[in-house]
Hints:
Blueprint: E1 3-20, E2 25-38, E3 43-49, H1 59-73, H2 84-91, H3 96-114, H4 118-125, E4 137-138, E5 140-143, H5 147-159, E6 164-168, H6 174-187, E7 192-196, H7 203-211, E8 220-222, H8 231-240, E9 245-247, H9 254-262, E10 268-271, H10 273-276, H11 279-291, E11 295-299, H12 306-319, E12 326-327, E13 348-349, H13 365-370, E14 379-380
Parallel strand pairs: 5-6, 6-7, 7-8, 8-9, 9-10, 10-11, 11-12
Antiparallel strand pairs: 1-2, 1-14, 2-3, 4-13
Helix pairs in contact: 1-3, 4-12, 5-6, 7-8, 11-12
Bound molecules: magnesium ion.
Amino acid sequence: MNIKSATLFPLSIPLRAPMKMSGETVTHANTLLLRLVDSEGREGWGETSAAPLMTGETLGSVLANTAYLLKAAKEVSWADPCEISNIQSRFLYANNSAKSCLELALLDLFAQANGEPAWSLLRKVHRIESLAAPDSLPVLRMLGGSLETELADARALRDQGYRHWKIKVGVYDLSTDLQRVAAICAALDGDTISADANGAFTLEQAVAFCRSDLASRLSFVEQPIAAGHSIADFASLKAASPLPICLDESIHGIDTIKVCADNGVMDGASLKLIKLGGMLPGMQAAIELEKRGLNLNLACKVAETSLSAAATASIGFAMNGAPWGLSMSNAYLEYDICDAPLAAAEGRFKVEQLNSVGIGVVPNLDLVKKTVSREWNIIEC
Length: 381
Ligand SMILES: [Mg+2]
């Protein structure tokens, strides 16, 4: 398979409401879409997002790196999905976000050429075709705004069937965060509720948070301390915490999973394509977690479009499960890039929505062009 043309669309899409996190308040999705056309005339789409505090990438840097990668990719005859990662690394060191963008578009093309959905291709590549037909995935919703808004949103969404939640903490002082957590847990009793500090707590604050009675109904706490802490600090936290620990910013691939798991400092991890380099490295990471008896959370960056949501969910369907939930962040966008944005039903995402060939989402080119960032231009590679 050869790439005939490649077009990069740097997008800026407003969020329905700003998402306040410990280190930043996100108002727009700064995300990059890639459209490949192969020699057979098939159209494959990829997406990756800027995440300055997680991957170090801005929209400008990921645009430049992906454009650089595409120049080399156009000279390659792509024959085997298993070789995508090795071939990309011949041209560009690190830069998992750019690699993820190209990998998604290539896998979309490979899956279309095979006449199968991307999740089915992922199973084949990892030789797990014998797994049962995929069950629906629990969709996790993030809560934000004032406590009144969080509680009102939670009640409305719970009525729609949602049962998995994430509360962003480290946003206020420790006592206020704990009061919020306790109030939300009381309102959503029996659900799977997590708190994500995005590394904002000191070790002492993290231990105090995890040991507080006010947080005792949480199902897990995500990245309580920053990724730069020593393994000894993470081990101290794990030993002191009665709550399971999920790591996100600390996890950038199989190597970091092995280090954290070997040292017993986590109970599960949050996987994002932008950190791992695409769907196939994402699968490898998910398989490694499962092998070690660790929990899996699948997440898009806040916020990405239906395309990333489909690619991320494909890992969950290929694995047939994501016990700590699937975070599809397209729900937080003011508008999406396709005619029929992906959405959960009864709080779950069903495989039937991704059973067409390829990734399962085909962006509407007119909508894509309307959302191009004012700061950057479309690039034809
Ligand atoms: Mg997180």
